[in-house]
């Protein structure tokens, strides 16, 4: 009896003995965006434009406030997009200001990307990031701003006293280093301090309500969400999104695709050189390992790709997602360490092209204006010819091309960036608008002993370790005992990569993309040490130089969608109309099978806003007895795919779209009668006018009808 009551006290001691340590709000909102014809952000592959949906994309927001000071808050947002971006923050802060005044600003709000490479591009403000998306994509941008803002608004509205716990543990089988030869350039005695060449520790924050109900989870773990490779044309939240999906499904039972009160976010950390493709880089043609130093196969970059662990990219996404989700749940379930309830935040803009780094031995060195080296665009997670890794020689014919088309780097820039051979001096390129950032955001958010080092870039493993250690030591010495610092990458603005000075010498992809030169990491160590000092003494640094707002300058050559046409013969008027079925399902399927149906459709880019929080497809099950149908899956579910393609260009100047609904029937799917449904918006072409100029004149976006077409099939 005595032993039992002892256990009883131990379990509930946390709950009954303590008051909630924070006031917390959690919110989630759809940010999927244009599912057709828009380039995807990440691989910078102009041909990789969207053609449907694998999974929906979400913004997940968390607000933490002090219990005794409920207006002292910080906001942490994790978005299923490639990276945080200045233009997005400008838009979101404007919206926040109209509703909340000065409560949520750039000082206390961090907006971070999971780094999925399968979300819409064209929302970043510097030209180099919009070059492959035909410039700025308004619908992608507006949709992200609105969705992120809404997720914060929802979190604001449900703020309530809550318990926030911190836990860490190792996840060994979900990431590898994709540039091990660069990692090995770091000093042997430094490497000897670590068992692995990537960080394996996952950090989890667990949020419980006052009544100990589950409210939310945030995981921090370094891995590129590039399980979906550069041949993928479907919007996808990749492995981090799948991890969120799994946990939200489990914690929000009885809801659709897991959308409920519980929110699980998977943030990224120092993932610069970290790949989920566990079998490493292989040659597509021979299956052999690629050349270790150059990551080529027979001299070609495009043939060398990271693969595994699944049989295809969908399975790899699932496996890497599942491993992160399972570890996160294990850490969630076993978390007992309640954080001290202090909220703290510091933020400063910095001109990263002009930073004086003070050396330990005296003297200073500088950062440089932005430039890419020749190993640009050659990552093993999706490289493009003719760039190869570890390129320290210049390529004369490319230089001629660059000088003719673009810009010759100044001698000062070349000297500053050495030994990087400068291919694109993006910091010196200003047309059609600024190519590269100079002013970046630096920020830290504190929750008790847990401190987020919010960085505007992708840090390599060792660069992240050095920064984390510098900051942890500083905080400990300044009286924050038990300080746990974590890098939060891809936040607020994007300035490519940061590697160590030693890695920089190798000029692999990550080093070639360290745009501010060899001293970038030391500059960040110095800057975040300064921010730590401010964080601990409770003062705000000066704001720093203002972030430029380029929204008015950003142009686009991406046309609006054409009008949608029925697939009818122009003379006879016969043929399928929008919403009609052109490929039916089979009559019977087995569990594990794939059901599919194709409809004449509209372009899914027609109504990005109305389709937010909606679905282009439904899998429905017949209610027995009766003739009603229950929704079972939507396009947010992992077992469905919505495929879109332009079937032909209509003779009348519009286009005919095909929409295909695909359902991978789960092995444990309940037997019954199911049907597949598709829904969307069409854009009306003005009847009778079919001159060639019609394409050039943007048609008003007229959503005349929401068409739906259902079809019955049975499964037994
Ligand atoms: C992408 O993955 C698919 C399998 O899902 C594979 O067939 C293809 O070769 C891969 N391509 C690249 C470039 O990685
Ligand atoms: C940033 O620094 C560079 C290099 O000194 C300078 O040319 C540029 O004007 C600075 N930008 C701003 C906005 O201060």
From TrEMBL:
Known EC number: 3.5.1.23
Domain Neutral/alkaline non-lysosomal ceramidase C-terminal: 573-688
Pfam families documented for this protein: Ceramidase_alk, Ceramidse_alk_C
Binding site for Zn(2+): 115, 224, 458, 497
Catalytic residues (UniProt): 275 (nucleophile)
All copies of domain Neutral/alkaline non-lysosomal ceramidase N-terminal, residue ranges: 22-526
Molecular functions (GO terms): metal ion binding; N-acylsphingosine amidohydrolase activity
Enzyme class: hydrolase
Gene3D superfamilies in the record: Neutral/alkaline non-lysosomal ceramidase, C-terminal domain
Catalytic activity: an N-acylsphing-4-enine + H2O = sphing-4-enine + a fatty acid
Keywords carried by this UniProt record: Hydrolase, Lipid metabolism, Metal-binding, Signal, Sphingolipid metabolism, Zinc
Signal peptide feature range: 1-17
Entry GO terms, CC: extracellular region; membrane
Needed cofactors: Zn(2+)
Family note: Belongs to the neutral ceramidase family.
PANTHER family xref list: CERAMIDASE, NEUTRAL CERAMIDASE
Protein name listed in UniProt: Neutral ceramidase
Native source organism of the sequence: Stichopus japonicus (Sea cucumber)
